[in-house]
Amino acid sequence: MAEQSSEGTGTSKKSAAKKSSTSRSTSKQSSSAKSSARRAPSAEPSRKPTGARVAGEAARQFAELSSKEVEGVTSLQRTEDGWVVELDVLELRRVPETTDVLAIYEVTLDSSGGMEGYRRVHRYVRGQVEDA
User: Fold this and answer.
1) Residue 70's closest CA among 84, 56, 83, 50?
2) Does 1.10.10 match the CATH number of domain 51-125?
3) Tell me, what's the pLDDT at 67?
4) For 56-90, how does the pLDDT look when each residue is reduced to its tens digit (9 = 90+)?
5) Sheet holding 115-125, edge to edge
6) In 3D, which of 45, 122, 114, 62 has the Cα closest to residue 83?
7) In the chain, how long is the greatest CA-to-CA distance?
8) Which residues have a Cβ under 8 Å from the Cβ of 55 and sit 6 or more positions away?
9) CA nearest to 100, candidates 70, 73, 127
């Protein structure tokens, strides 16, 4: 009978260990569920796009449509209907690099950041200095 009680004790230790590990994993799961629930509101996109996002989206959409390399954003302006972004664009690569042909494109976007259109407003040589 002494043997049975030692086996019974061993079994109860194993089941106690299982319960303990189960409660730890459950608390970890509920903890991670709580943290993801806390992060959810910040994951929602803001209703009003920021200037930086609009400029980046304008550059991305322009490059995708035109297959030209955007070198930078020259200006960004909010309008009643949306946004106007001017982009410096590489039109023709030359050697030496100072003779590359660049252009400024005006990109119009709606209030949510969707492209409505674009047009070239100026063309120049990279090394050329202009008085404005």
Assistant:
1) 56
2) no
3) 95
4) 999 999 999 999 999 999 999 999 999 999 999 99
5) 69-78, 82-92, 101-110, 115-125
6) 114
7) 105
8) 73, 76, 85
9) 127
Q: Are 89 and 69 in contact (CB under 8 A)?
A: yes
What size, in residues, is the chain? Answer: 132
How many whole angstroms separate alpha carbon 7 and alpha carbon 107?
Answer: 79
pTM, two decimal places: 0.63
Q: Where are the domains of the chain?
A: 1-44, 51-125
Which is nearest to 82 in space by CA: 47, 114, 110, 52? 110
Report pLDDT digits (tens) over 14-66.
Answer: 445 555 444 444 444 444 444 444 554 555 555 678 999 999 999 999 999 99
